Amino acid sequence: MGRPFIYLWIYFGVLLAVFLTPTAHAGTKPGYEQIKGAALTALLTDKTVISEYKDSAGGIKDFRFTEHHFKDGTTDYIELGHPSEQGIWNIIGGDKVCYKYPGNKVFTGTYCFFVFKIEDCYYNYHRRAMSLSGPRNTDWWTSRFIIKGGGGSCDEVMG
Questions:
Q1: Residue 59 domain boundaries
Q2: Which of 154, 155, 151 is nearest to 124 (CA)?
Q3: How confident is the model at residue 2 (pLDDT cuts 50, 70, 90)?
Q4: Going by C-beta distance under 8 Å and a sequence separation of 6 or more, which residues neighbour residue 110?
Q5: 101 lies in a domain?
Q6: CATH classification of the domain holding 115
Q7: Tell me: the pLDDT tens digits for 140-149?
Q8: Residues 128, 136 contacting (CB under 8 angstroms)
Q9: Residues 54/144, Cβ–Cβ less than 8 Å
Q10: In whole angstroms, how far apart are CA 83 and each of 34, 35, 50, 106, 142?
Q11: Does residue 130 contact residue 122 with C-beta atoms inside 8 Å?
Q12: Considering its fold, how many domains does the chain have in total?
């Protein structure tokens, strides 16, 4: 391979780097930050979240749920109108919270989410909604929550 090919590869490398440089994502709002590491553990340990799901059409589903995160890594999940479900939670890779529900015959997998905050409302994103630099679009959250007793609100819909 001669010099022209090396320069061509360098040129394409520079172009690729420019196009892959993180930029602001659609729907990004000021003050939006990812919660990770010790802050994510502290946010959930011995706390109850009051949460709601986003449906596939982009609206809020009619039901809400609460989930208490015990220090021993277990949870107590209660969806309104349904019996309590015992689960397991942990932080994986320092940047996502994962859940399992061993006794549930329907939800048999491990469900992991990246947590982002704006004001006192926390948004969960599945890995498919994420890029290397954050959510592909902040409107693609799967559920959002406040900490029970924390005085937060998710009144304004993101999306």
A1: 29-147
A2: 154
A3: low
A4: 98, 99, 100
A5: yes
A6: 2.40.128
A7: 899 999 999 9
A8: no
A9: yes
A10: 32, 30, 16, 14, 22
A11: no
A12: 1
Token reading at 89: 């939670």
Polymer length in residues for the chain: 159
pLDDT of residue 61: 62
Residue 7 lies in a domain: no
Flag whether pLDDT at 35 surpasses 70.
yes
Give the integer Cα–Cα distance in Å for 116 and 134.
9
How much is the pTM? Answer: 0.76
Residue 22 covered by a domain: no
Q: Tell me how far apart the alpha carbons of residues 2 and 60 are, in angstroms, rounded to a whole number.
A: 59
What Cα–Cα distance (Å) separates residue 13 from each residue in 9, 18, 20, 22?
6, 9, 10, 16
Please write the tens of the pLDDT for every residue from 89-109: 999 999 999 999 998 888 899
Tokens of 49: 């979240």
CA nearest to 101, candidates 125, 123, 121, 84: 84
